Structure formats: C-alpha cells, structure tokens
Amino acid sequence: MTAMRRHGLRIAITLLPVLLALAHATGLWRLDAIDRLDHLIYDTRLRATMPGTLDPRIVIVDVDDASLTRQGQWPWSRDKLARLTRELTGRQQAAALGFDVMFVEPDRSAGLDKLRQIARGPLREMPGLAAEIDRLAPALDNDAIFAAAMQGQRVALGYYFTRTEKPGAKGQLPPAPVLQAEAFPPGRGYATAWNGFGASLPVLADAAPAAGFLNTLVMSNGDGVIRAVPLIARYEGDRARPGYYESLGLAVYRLASGTPPVRPVFAPSGPGAAAPPLQSLLVGGLRIPVNEAASMQVPFRGPGGAQGGSFRYVSAGDVLEGQLAPGELKDRIVLVGATAPGLQDLRATPVGAAFPGVEVHANIVSAMLDHRLLAVPDYAPGYEVLSVLAAGLVLALGLSLLPAPRAVVLAVATLAALVGVNAWLYKHHNLVLPLASALAMAALAFAFNMGWGYFVESRARRGLVRLFGTYVPPQLVNEMLVTPGRYSMRAESKHMTVMFCDMRNFTRLSEQMAPAELQAFLNNVFNRLTSVISTHRGTVDKYMGDCVMAFWGAPIDTPDHATLAVRAALDMAEAVRDINKIHRTTGRPEISVGIGINSGVMSVGDMGSAARRSYTVVGDAVNLASRLEGLSVHYGVEIVASGATRELAPGFVWQELDSVLVKGRAQAVAVFTPLGATTEAEAQTPAALQQSAQLQRWAEVLAAYRRQDWAMGRNLLDPLLAADAKKVLYQLYAQRLASMALRPQDPEWDGATRFETK
C-alpha cells in the first residue's frame, strides 16, 4: 500500500487510457479510430486463417468478358438464359441454381410487343396477321420461355430491397416470407427494415421456387467493406406480405438442403426484461450465429476471382456453347453471376478490393455447408469491458511499481495475452471479439506511464544518483532508484554495523617502494578490498592512509548488516592472502590486515563543513570499532568483532578472545574472532567436530581464567598449546596465567583487560 500511495499520481495517469477505452466499449463515446483498428485486426486475422482451398461443391458460372464477346452485350435475352438454365439443371444436373442477377424489366428483345403494335396499327386490316402473331407468341415470349425452363427446378432468383420516403415496388416478392413478423417479439428491430423492392417479373417469380435478396452492404461498417451480410431482412411495405425474407445465399443453401425451415433463436433474458436480442438462426439442424442486424460474418475462403482458388469458375459462354461434358457439374451448387468490370458487380471485402459479388454468396453457402461459422456473441461488449479493465489494472499497477526492464516485459506480456486469448477464441471457438480498444489502451497506458516515469520520476532518480553515487555501491544505488523518495542525505540514527580495516607492515613496505609504485600498489589493494565490500552490499565511508572504513545498514535498510560485514571481513582477509602469494613470487614483503567490527546505534548522514562534506557514520559504536581494529595485532588475529556483532551474526564459528576495556569506555566489551561460516552439514564433519571440541575447551580456559583458577586454566590450555603452539592467542594466555599465578587473588578482579592506548 505504501508503494501504491507513493506512485498514486503515476497510477492515475496510466488509468486515463483505461477510462477512454471503457467509454468506447460501453458506447458512451465511440471512437472511429478504434473501430477502424478493430476492422483492420478482423481483416488481418481473417486473411491469416482462410483455408485457401478449393470448395468443389460450388461452381460459379461467370458472365465474364469472354462470354460478352461471344454471346453479345448484357443483358442477354431471356431465351438465352433459358438455354443456360436448361443446360445447368438438365444436362449438367446441378443440385441447385442461384441467379445473382435481377429480372425486373420484361424482355422485349424478340419484338413481340412491336409486332402486336403493328398488327393493331397500320396492318390491322391484313387478314390472319393477329392470329399468326398469337400463334407465334409462345416462341417469341422470352420471359415465358425462361419461366418454363425454371418450372419444377431448384432455382433461386435474386432481388433487392430499398427504403425511400415514397415506397416503390417493381416485380413480385416470394409469395410468403421465410419468417412471419409474429415470429419475433415486439419492442425490438431484429433485422434491417425496408419498404420497397425491385424483384423479378411475376411470371418469373411464380416459376422459381425460391428467391433471395442481394443486399450485401447493410453491415458495411462505414468503410464500404463487406464483412457481414444479412441473412434475413424485414419488409414493411404494402406491396407484398410483411415479414422477414431470406437472402440469396440462405435461399440457395436451403434449396440444396431440401428447404429446411428457419427459426429464430434468442439470447436468454430474465422475466420482465425487454425483448431479447436475436442470437442465431436455426436452419434445420444448422445454427447460424448472427448479430443484432441478423447478419452473418462472412468467413471468406480465400482471394476472389477465377484465379483465387476458392471456387471453380466456368465461363457462361462455355456453358451456352455446350463445351462442358454432360454431368460435369452434377450435384454441384451453381451460382450465376458477373465479374465483367462493366457490369459493376465487384465489391470491397477484407480479402480483396474488387471481389466478385457472386462469390460473396458462394462463401456464405460454403460456410453453411462446412458449419464454418463466425459469431459475434451478444456478450462481446462485456468481454471488451472486462479485457480493458483487467489489462488496464495490471498495467497501471505493474508499470508503476516495477523497474523499467520488468515493466517493458509486463507490457509485452499483457499485449501478448490480449492478442493470444482473442486469437485462441477466434481460432478454436469461431468467436469474433473486439480487441482494438484493449490494445490501444495498453499502448497508451505504456506510453503515458513510461513518459511520466522518464520526465517526472527520473528527475528524482537522477538527483539520488548525484547524492549517493559517489558513496554507495552501484547495486545499492540501483535498488534505491526503485523508491528514490525514501532516501535523503539527512542525518538519522540507525542500528548498523561498521568496519575498520588497517594494513599492517605498511610503513616498512612503503620505504621499499618508489612513490609511483606505492601508489599503484595501494590502488590495487584498495580496489580488491572495495570490491569485496561492495559485493557484500557495504558502503565505503573513506580511505585514511592505509585504512579503509565501511559500514552496512545505510542508506538502504539491511536487516542482516552484521552477517554481511563479517562475510566481507573474512573475504577481505582471504584477498590479502592472495596478494601475499604474489608478493612471495616477486620477493616483496608480505602484508597483513587488522579488521575491527562493531554493531550498534550510530548516526549516519551528510556531515562536514561547507567546504567539504561526506556521507558518513559517527558515534560511540563507530569509535569502538576503531579501537577493536587496533586489538587484532595484540591477539594475533585478523578480525576482532564485538559481542553485539556476534549476536547478530550467528551463522559463523566464533572464538571468544577476551573481555576488554578500551580507552574512552567505562564498560568492558566481549570480543570475538570469526573462524569461518558454518552450516548444519559442515558442523558434522570430523574437522568441524574437532574444532568444536577445541572451542569448548577454550571456553573452559577462559572460565577458569576469569575465576582466577590459574592452575586449572593452565592445565586446560596445555593441550591446546600442544595442538597449535604458534597460535598467538594461546601463547598470550599462557603468559597471563603464568604471571597471574605469582600474584595473590584480587577480590575485585573482573577478568577484563584494559587498553589505555588507541
């Protein structure tokens, strides 16, 4: 919660695109740019998942340029269309035939009307002329010839709906709509409403068993691209029976499938709710998802046209000229349409800017046959709101609280999750769900958040680097940059651990080196020691001649500051031993270090004068560490730590050295030296068990020493001296015990050793 409050403004800035996307998703403020992006995503996804294979069940008889060249300009006479129909339904035995062509006007190409006009005019006195014309009329009535060719065949004609202020009607609609108006509850418009139409002549409409409307741009989404086509439309005029009529694609599918009935399926709604939305159309056993305008998403198979590879194209001229073998199109669904550019039956679709209109219907029929149907579910707005909210909250919190590299990873992962879930639902469940608003929100949220972080919060970070960069190890500065507001140079009291490391024999060594050589040597040693301190998260306070001062626990709170300091001290001693190996090969004198460590409350902050300041620690605990460093040579050890440090660093093997009173302190302090880190497994090894036994005996030596039992102390110490006669600590206590044995016991003896010098 503290981090959230600290980054509250940044989180609020990141949530602005979320609110914008929610306004779009809920319809409060529709943004055209997001709608266009959704269309682009839909089109791209559709093209990427198209089968791209030939559907042999559907054939398109194409009125192409070659057909017009060989058979004459369009429109062709109805007797020619009758020949085409008889060829397809008879000799070719097509399963169903659909005309993506309208026959609104009568065919006058045979001249029958002209002959009758002449017979009633200048030649009305000619005997038998009128009777002869009546006798020839059946052969000259091309509409009747075409109607006769369709009689009893599975043929569907096309027509179109219109909507004008003054309704108009031409031709004749099917005798009954596919769904009566009563099939839908009142109170909602379940399909696009029309009040006029242009349909086939009555003689043709009566002959064809089915007809369907050709309107395809009802759901053009404002950019003229056909993505969805209505399957039913509502007629509200008075020139035909009101109700819901079917599209040409649905009519052809029903013809080929035995004319199954059509029933609407509504989304579930609670009692007393408004009219439920239309969810799908049930055509026999096929459930076709539709949107609020009763439109079906068209799952295009591939690029359009004769070279597109989705459907077989046959030139209408070849059919009329009998160039197809008998039965070559047997049991195929045949759609007659035009691709000749002059006939203006090319449409813009997601898969092509000049897509044959007849192939749109072919794709609809193919999708129904395959049950390959896309659905825009009624819960799509809810999905959009949830995806925007979920992704927005994740980004608002994650981008604000995580460091920049992880924030970038989170943003990429969020975008990938949005796209992945959406693509998975599309691919495996045929669900078309909105994505653009969530993607746009995520991109804007990332841009706003990173911009705020760079231009606002990075100023605080740069200031922090300027303050602490010269004092604190780089890895600690990086941690501090996560929450820069927490740190300042203001002095404060903290429980910390401080270390002093002094180089022994340095004076003798410096006398043997030239200044430049000495400088290089010191730089090398300090680099090694500083690297160890930084590795263990310590802060180098200062270099004082041949001494290094460092501390742990500030500016970053470090609960294990004592443990880190002891580990650093052990590694520093090991680094000096490595340096001595090199010295032995080069003939230089060896060096040694004395390290003093103490833990306690001390003041830390930016201290000094106006001319020179530094980030340092001061206090009694610091002074004690300095005194302990000077005791290391007395006890013959490299590291001397206080009892306070030992209590805070239990993960080491400790040997108590003494109880001391250093200059400037009135109370004795127990001092220890770490012999190394330990684990439960290492504690059971023979060497560890032997060391533990020796330390236990050493504790008994100290106990005897402090109770002034000099003889017992000597007896306990002798085996330790025998095992390690060169150990300065044992030699020191052997001398003390021998000296004390010559004196009488002191009743005020406290066992502490007093040091009057620093």
Short description:
With 758 residues, this protein is an alpha/beta fold.
Structural summary, described in words:
- Strands 19, 20, 21, 22, 23, 24, 25, 26 and 27 form a nine-stranded mixed sheet that branches. Strands 1, 2, 3, 4, 6, 7, 15 and 16 form an eight-stranded mixed sheet that branches.
- The longest helix is centred in the middle third of the chain and has 33 residues, at 436-468.
- The protein has 24 helices and 27 strands.
- Helix 10 crosses helix 12.
- Helix content is 45%, strand content 20%.
- The protein is an alpha/beta fold.
Structural class: alpha/beta
Strand content: 15-25%
- The helicity comes to 40-55%
Give the CA-based shape: rod-shaped
Helix run count: 24
* Mean pLDDT score: 86
Radius of gyration: 48 Å
For the biggest sheet, the summary is: 9 strands, mixed
The counted number of beta strands is 27
For the record, give the distance between the C-alpha atoms at the N and C termini, rounded to a whole number. 49 Å
Low-confidence runs of at least 5 consecutive residues: none
Domain Guanylate cyclase: 497-629
Protein name: Adenylate/guanylate cyclase domain-containing protein
Keywords: Membrane, Transmembrane, Transmembrane helix
Transmembrane segments: 382-402, 407-426, 432-456
